[in-house]
Design goal:
The chain is of the alpha/beta class and about 450 residues long. The chain folds into two domains: about 1-205, Rossmann fold, CATH 3.40.50; about 205-438, Rossmann fold (3-Layer(aba) Sandwich). Helix content is about 45%, strand content about 15%. The protein is built from 18 helices and 14 strands. The protein has helices spanning about 10-20, 35-40, 50-60, 70-75, 95-110, 125-140, 160-165, 180-190, 190-195, 205-235, 240-250, 270-280, 290-310, 340-350, 360-370, 380, 400-410, 425-430; strands at about 1-5, 25-30, 65, 80, 115-120, 150, 170-175, 200-205, 320-325, 355, 375, 385-390, 415, 430-435. Strand 13 (about 415), helix 18 (about 425-430) and strand 14 (about 430-435) form a beta-alpha-beta unit.
Length: about 450
């Protein structure tokens, strides 16, 4: 089967590369010449473990190619995935300008039956708009061509996207009632996973569109809930990690996403919770739990800043803070809505000096916050620091040489915003220690 994937961002590139790994003929489309040229040279624009190898292998085999020519890619494909950006608008809604542009371009070049699939995370009803935009372009051409529209939301975690695609928890396919042809084509495309007994959820388009928001909003809620518990734990002398373990051992709750910290970030949770809340308000309802989740997340970042300031006796003016980890999570260079960036900016605003290190996101972070000093490793970031702040739990920060760190620092303080360390060994190494919720 031949498919086209329009958009070579995170979702589009991972989707196209992984389908090609299944033996599917994939053409990835983008409108940026420099991006396509780089991909043809094997240069991957994002940091994602395992992705470079898959792209190189399948490009070399001829199963994966990159082009600027959307019309040509569509002409050779049976299934066309729309995986372009859907950024948040200022009012919290989702900007569908890129989706509309692609849909209309498809309508202008369609030359036969195709299944057009929304892969990007989009508000409920977007597929209806996609259908209308394509149909409008066909009508202008006087064309009677038939096509199908479907929704196939992605559930990819940055840093683990290859495994999530190859071994997913589920595959969701939303089609129009009675559109057996589109459903059969998409099931055939995903047949390698179906044979591995991956659960398939076959539903209507609106349900499929809403499912992604529902899943992400619930996961974000778990994070904000445990962060609220962490505040109370600090008041009563409790241990939020023990409480999370008690909760997580209940199979009805599950242990994932119950880790106290500086709050969620990235390209999905902040945008999806805000979009879901906006969508509900537009329908005359309030997703009260989601609204609260958003407020708690915003508040948690400021709580982390206050924790750092308090550890420095209430004044950070002229003090040096060594920040370890800038990306919103490990194994990615994504800085979108990263808690570390907000924390750094607020500390700088209050007069602190920042020395920072991240294994993957350093260059991008430097462009976002040029006022901080970028360092080549964790130990350089700690030179002369009055406090060490672990913000992102990269593996290389889990077993730091604490005696060496103490020698480098002006004052041995550790603020462990991800609860990576146990207090006693850190204190035994001569540090003052602060965790979150314990």
């Amino acid at each position: 089967m031949n498919i086209a994937v329009i958009g070579t961002g995170y979702v589009g590139l991972v989707t196209g590369a992984c389908f090609s790994e299944f033996g599917v003929q994939v053409t990835c489309v983008d409108k940026l010449p420099e991006k396509i040229d780089a991909l043809r040279r094997g240069e991957i624009p994002i940091y994602e473990p395992g992705l470079e190898d898959i792209v190189e292998r399948n490009t070399r085999s001829g199963r994966l190619s990159f082009t600027l020519d959307l019309a040509d890619a569509v002409s050779r494909a049976l299934v066309v995935f729309v995986a372009v950006g859907t950024p948040a608008a200022p009012d919290g809604s989702t900007d569908l300008a890129f989706v509309e542009s692609v849909a209309r371009e498809i309508g202008r070049c369609l030359d036969g039956y195709r299944v057009i699939v929304t892969k990007s995370t989009v508000p409920v009803g977007t597929s209806d708009h996609v259908r209308a935009w394509i149909q409008e372009e066909l009508d202008l051409r006087g064309s009677k061509l038939r096509f199908s529209v479907a929704s196939n939301p992605e559930f990819l975690r940055e840093g683990a996207a290859i495994g999530d695609f190859m071994r997913p928890d589920r595959v969701v396919i939303g089609t129009d009632p009675g559109d057996d042809q589109a459903l059969a084509i998409l099931k055939d495309l995903y047949r390698p996973l179906y044979l591995n007994e991956t659960p398939f959820v076959e539903t209507n388009i609106h349900t499929a569109e809403f499912a992604k928001y529902a899943a992400n909003a619930f996961l974000a809620t778990k994070i904000s809930f445990v962060n609220e518990l962490s505040v109370l734990c600090e008041e009563i002398g409790g241990d939020v990690q023990a409480i999370a373990r008690v909760m997580g051992l209940d199979n009805r709750i599950g242990k994932k996403f119950l880790h106290a910290g500086p709050g969620y970030g990235g390209s999905c949770f902040p945008k999806d919770t805000t979009s879901a809340a906006h969508f509900a308000r537009a329908l005359g309802h309030e997703l009260s739990i989601v609204e609260a989740t958003i407020r708690v997340n915003e508040r948690q970042r400021l709580r982390m800043v206050d924790k750092i300031v308090a550890a420095l006796e209430g004044d950070v003016v002229g003090r040096t803070v060594g920040v370890l980890g800038l990306s919103f999570k490990p194994e990615t260079d994504d800085l979108r809505e990263a808690p570390a960036i907000d924390i750094v900016r607020e500390l700088l605003r209050r007069g602190a000096k920042i020395r920072a290190y991240d294994p993957a996101a350093l260059a991008q972070a430097g462009r976002l916050v040029p006022e901080m000093t970028l360092c080549k490793d964790a130990y350089e970031a700690l030179e002369g620091a009055d406090a060490m702040v672990v913000v992102t739990e990269w593996n290389e920060f889990r077993l730091l040489d604490l005696p060496r760190a103490r020698e480098l620092m002006a004052e041995p303080r550790m603020l462990d915003l991800r609860n990576v360390y146990k207090r006693d060994p850190v204190v035994a190494a001569g540090f003052q220690y602060w965790g979150v919720g314990r």
